Amino acid sequence: MEDAFGTWTYQELLNHSQAFSAWLDGKGVARGERIVVQLPNIRQTVAVFYGACRRGVVFVPLNPGMKPFHLRSVIADADPRLVIAEDETAADRLRDVTDLPVYSIDSLWADVERLRDAGAGAEAVEVSPEDLAVLIYTSGSTAAPKAVACPHQQIVFAASSINAVLGYHAEDIVFCRMSVSWDFGLYKVLISTLTGAKLVLAGGEPDIALVKSLRESGATMMPIVPSLASMLTTLIRRDPEGAPTLRMFTNSAAALPQVTIDALRSAFPGAQVVRMYGQTECKRISIMPPHLEHERPDSVGLPLPGTTIEILDEDGTLLPPGEPGEITVTGPHVMAGYWRAPEITARAYRRDETTGAMRLHTGDYGHLDEDGFLYFGGRRDDMFKRKGTRMSTVEIEAAALDIPGVTAAVALPPTATRDLALCVASDLEPHDVLRSLAERLEPAKVPATCRIVNDFPLTLNGKSERKQLARLLDGSDK
């Protein structure tokens, strides 16, 4: 395991995690209690995670970019025993929002190193498979982030089942630029550990140095989101040494447009680009098997092994292949609901009346084909009607990205005060974009306006920040 400051073997990771568990024990943190961790992608973050798991302590990772406005409510909601920050400056900021003990990783790690050197390590406690391992805070339709409660058994099943499809192995070098505070990054830790692959914890390097970092690390596997994929293909075109040798890209967050997939394949000859679809509420829903990457380009793959996808109508009736409806999921990876939010949990997690299995209602829409491949239609907020035609932002954005010269696109559904709008990163004129869209879409699906926004705002996890773009269009950011 490697970060910007050095390297550990897995044995060294084990030793440090055992020493951290002894540190937790010394602080009196007991099984089932929470620790909030706001750390960058460094080796210590991983040791903290595994050390907490050894003691049955719940790991609550927060993105280092989360601001006091949300930190205050998240820490209150998690109700932890203590908080760990990146450094003393960050620790002081956290002390302004909580009365709990706050430790900087630098200061506490000196104690962990002494415990490790002394061979100390608290005994692993007896952890039930149903015990919570992690709380992942995720934004959604509510103002404050909510936490998905992730038990040990669901996490273990999801990591193993994902790797059964992707096939990571001990010779792989996994380049992870995703924050470990996000489940996409955390599962790279889990799958690397599961397979013995080398994990490179990245993210501290400037964007311009990304290709160099990939080349120097010898990376073979790289998780990406659309914004990162677009940036990477642009950087490769400017790099005189050509592309590093990667064998696989895996995608999460927003769907990866076909034009971006084609650009990755062109920039990285021989690399597989694996389409996936998932939600934190069950981690992964479907994966296109790597050997079928060129098949059914509109599909996001097959259900995760050992799981079931069903498409239901508004009344909960099972729909046949080809019929669009809500995507629902059952299986051992369905998480335990939302932390301390029974009403929200009851809406998303419901028992199948026939089998008694817990079914996740994703709020997303799509359909299955006759062979069980899933086609993603859009998220609940992506679907809308305009001029009598049902459509989704996904298809409008995909059409926009098909236009040469457009490198990013976000479609914003109509509101009471604004018609359907499109924001793009491009050197084209807005009317040229709309004219090209009219060649690709039905008239009702062509936005009324187009705005050029070459510096797209992004969320902490690299997704396009739709709310900020909407404020920009509506003029409320002035």
What can you tell me about this protein's structure?
It is built from 14 helices and 26 strands. The protein is of the alpha/beta class and 478 residues long. Among the domains are: 126 residues, 3-Layer(aba) Sandwich (Rossmann fold); 88 residues, GMP Synthetase, Chain A, domain 3. The strands form 9 sheets. Strands 17, 18, 19, 20 and 21 form a 5-stranded antiparallel beta sheet that branches. A 4-stranded parallel beta sheet has the order 4-3-5-6, with helices on both faces. Strands 11-12-13 form a 3-stranded parallel beta sheet, with helices on both faces. Helix 1 packs across helix 2, helix 1 crosses helix 5 and helix 6 crosses helix 7. It is globular, with a radius of gyration of 23 Å. The model has no long low-confidence stretch (mean pLDDT 91). It holds the Pfam family AMP-binding.
Radius of gyration: 23 Å
What form results from the Cα inertia axes? globular
SS-derived structural category: alpha/beta
Largest sheet: 5 strands, antiparallel
Oligomer: single chain
CATH architecture of the domain at 2-127: 3-Layer(aba) Sandwich
- Count of separate DSSP helical elements: 14
Roughly how many Å apart are the termini? 46 Å
Could you tell me the CATH topology label of the domain at 2-127: Rossmann fold
Give me the count of strands: 26
Helix content: 25-40%
Strand content: 15-25%
Give unreliable regions as ranges.
none
Kindly report the average pLDDT value.
91
Domain AMP-dependent synthetase/ligase: 6-339
Pfam family, one: AMP-binding
Protein name: Non-ribosomal peptide synthetase
GO molecular function: acid-thiol ligase activity
